[in-house]
Amino acid sequence: MTVTNLGGKVMSLMVPDKNGKLADIILGYDTPEEYVNGSLYFGAIIGRVGNRIAKGKFSLDGKEYQLPINNGVNHLHGGPNGFHNVYWNITPLNINGNEALKLDYTSPDGEEGYPGKLNVNVIYTLTNHNEWIIEYEATTDKPTPVNLTHHNYFNLAGEGNGDILQHSLMINGDRFVPVDGGLIPTGELRDVVNTPFDFRKPTPVGLNINDPDKQLKLGSGYDHNWVLNKNDDSLTLAAVVSESTSGRMMEIYTTEPGLQFYAGNFLTGSDSGKGKKRYAYRTAFCLETQHFPDSPNHSHFPSITLKPGEKYYQKTVHRFLTA
């Protein structure tokens, strides 16, 4: 793995195929400098609040806050200078014989409109069991919303090596979160049965992606949050993805209640990535473990409010296998 301190962005992740041949499965750039002006979210830590907040507004303890608008009329991924766009301190670690990096950042009170000073630690660990573990920790001195996630663009065939429509995907969720035209949740938690959002069994990503379904049209394909099948914050299986030619398979486990599946619908080929490759339409997917989008404005969604004296903690494990 290669990491830059700008946004804690993962620049490369080399994973073996069924023949033991390594390939980089993460979209990005060849040099750290290219990330300064490149696609904002490639491989980045996302915060203070991942995903969207409607009109950038939320109320907390009777006070309304206005955040920067950077996605249509909404706030996205912590704002234009969110955690993806700041410099993190990086410290190499060894955890039980495994190579690791600790990334830390202090977000000052009022940064991007959010209340409270937030101290954040993120630890990347590569284990000897072909796992990449991400652990997130945060504390605050004022109540504030926190919903950290990671924005890797994966292609298990290797970055720049075709589209991901034949990748097989299983999502361990019986419900998903419908959205409006701005990709803001309507508040409904809808059953996936008899919809193109049913990935309870391994299904090719492209099988139903162009169906005349209103939700698919609103998202230009899949760009939705799934409600994972779980009752607590234990580490449980969220998704399994496989690619038949390489034989690579990735299992994702998380303590989070939600998973955003994005199918690369806004990749246009205009961005020149590694080796000057053009990352075209639907040539990568994202699986972002998270709380639900726009959570501060939906009281029935799991809360993302962190209070002084509390410790935010979440964990996501990517386990790589071959079939």
Number of helices: 2
| Class by SSE composition | mainly beta
Helix content: under 10%
User: Helix and strand string, N-terminal first?
Assistant: EEEEHEEEEEEEEEEEEEEEHEEEEEEE
Radius of gyration: 18 Å
The N- to C-terminal Cα distance equals 22 Å
Descriptors for this entry?
single chain; 323 residues; mainly beta; 9-stranded antiparallel β-sheet; 4% helix; globular
Structure characterization notes:
- It is a single chain.
- By secondary structure, this protein is mostly beta strands.
- It contains 2 helices and 26 strands.
- The chain has a 9-stranded antiparallel beta sheet with strand order 10-11-12-13-26-22-21-16-19, with no helix packed on it. It has a 5-stranded antiparallel beta sheet with strand order 18-17-20-23-24, with no helix packed on it.
- The two termini are 22 Å apart.
